[in-house]
Amino acid sequence: MRIKEKIYLTPTPIRIWHWLNAFGIITLCVTGAEIRFPEFVHIFGNFKAVVRVHNAAGIVVALSFALWFIYYAFVARTLIKIYVPTVTDIRKGLIRQALYYFFYFFLGSKPNPHHQTPENKFNPLQKSAYMAMMLILTPIVIITGIFLMNVTPLRNFVLGIGALKVLVEVHWLLACSFCAFLFAHFYLATLGHTPFAHFIPMWTGWEEIEPNAHDEDATEEPKAAA
Amino acid sequence: MLRIIKQICIGGIAGCLLLAAPGAWGMDAQDCAECHLDTSIIEEGGRYLYIDPGQYNRSAHSEEGCPTCHISVSDDHPEDGVRPSRALCNSCHDSVAEEYAACNHAANADCTECHNPHQVKSIKTVSGFDMNGMCIECHDPKEVSGTHGVWLPQAQLHIEALPCITCHTGSENYVITFYIEKFEKRAGTATKLQLATFADLKAIAPAGKVEHLIDTNADGIINLAELKAFNSSSNKQGLKLKGMMTPQDASHTYSTLDNRWDCTFCHASGPSAMQISFVAIPDGQGTYMQIEVEPGAVLDAINGTPDFYMVGATRNKTLSYVGLIIVVAGLLMPIGHGSLRLLTMKNRKEEE
Question: Chain B: nearest CA to A182, how far in angstroms?
């Protein structure tokens, strides 16, 4: 029988951000689909309501992003450590983790090479994906959204960056990337030792871990992970 | 007997000529022009007596001539001290007058308060901005923006993008009218957007024909390829197409049709709904010539103009597909991995 212990992995501000972000993005995806394809998508029925819900969800996501950024950058001061892949992550970790997910996982021959700690929450694939989502795509989709909500006062800026058609299409493609990310993110969250193993800590903050777990990243190059 | 009949006929003709004297023997338009097109009449009698020749010659009424409306002008005018008569608008525009009389505006303004009869132009020869110019005379733009903002998202954007009469109209349908705007780029930011004048366009038009800037094959109709080509190249010339939705028919009801309260009337119609469009080009006389655009999904063809994007109707078809491919790819990953996961479940159980 394996002895399992619990670690406090996800602090409250991050859990609040996560669920605001999750429901906000789902709302944005659904309402966004109706706004772009109103002749095909009829979920809410009232176009004005759809626009207002979309705008409100956008504001919620922007505020929750600010909460996330302030917490990690100024309170915990672990933003770079947690979200930016190290050189080792890029050179070895990405391939090792991808091999696990797409090969060893099916064979059942090797355990997950990454084990979570509060300072090293994400595996190299997660780090890379979350960094792209949170530090590049999210700010851009928020900024384009703010421009689209305030076309009149920001008209000169809007025209300066190629006008509305550019702004809208950038916003659209980023939104599609978020939607695609959601599917993959939700599915990968079920790859814990039980299907809900990664969902519960995002609600309670506590994650079950195996105490003797061997973290290949940490043992190979402890300084890089620190 | 014949003599009596002849005398009656001569008497009748003479009587008719006398009765018709004010009109038949009065001044003609040229006589009127000598005084009323001269600014000195302002000092002599007041500004209302002066007719701006530039405005009048471009007006729809100029072809009628002064005596058509002012039939009582005598040869002794103005020494006779009689103020010439003025025709009532409904003498000619009876159906319009009837329509207008039934609307709320009728109690607040008569025809001439919006339409100066010496300057009135056809709806097709004025820009959407000029149309709003008449409304602004009474309706304060800030107040209008405030009252619309209560219920209309992005109220100011709507007000700037549409003539008021696109919504406040009896016209069931609208068309898209493109105008050409010029802009000056400063430090990478487009500033000072304003409608391009005839002189602006003439300076860059082939052989000075402004309409040939877009209608490059000079066949009198702009096809979608020509519009697309202009839209692509206009940025280099400091020009942009400005799209406005304008009413298809002139209407004087100023009511708001039920469907105009429903955002989906415009925003859910899809790119293929807006088939009728025109390009309005300044004609050098302060008015515009409307050139018909080949019927088709014009906004779809030109991917939206830089300064016109109607959510729910304007979208790039190619990028829509690219976006959908991204979403499907995101969906395929869990489906593919999940399927293999199910098929190899036994391997992981053995490991445990």
Answer: 8
Q: Could you tell me the two tokens for B341?
A: 């996961």
The interface pTM score, or ipTM, of the predicted complex is 0.87
- The answer to whether the CB atoms of A159 and B264 lie below 8 A apart is no
Q: What is the DSSP letter of A120?
A: B
* Domains located in chain A, CATH noted: 5-225 (1.20.950.20)
Could you read off the pLDDT of B20-72 as tens digits, one per residue? 344 444 567 788 888 888 888 888 888 888 888 888 887 888 888 888 888 88
Contact at 8 Å (CB) between B28 and B65? yes
**A160·B270 Cβ contact <8 A:** no
Nearest residue, CB atoms, B264 vs list A36, A47, A172 = A47
Chain B, 134 to 153: residues with Cβ < 8 Å from chain A are 153
Q: Which SS3 state, helix, strand or coil, does residue A206 take?
A: strand
Distance of CA B255 to the CA centre of its chain: 18
Q: Say yes or no: B116 contacts chain A, CB-CB below 8 A.
A: no
Q: Identify which of A48, A106, A168 has the shortest CB distance to residue B153.
A: A48
Q: Which has the closest alpha carbon to A189: A142, A131, A130, A132?
A: A130
> From residue A160, how far is each of A149, B40, B230, B238 by CA, in Å?
17, 49, 19, 13
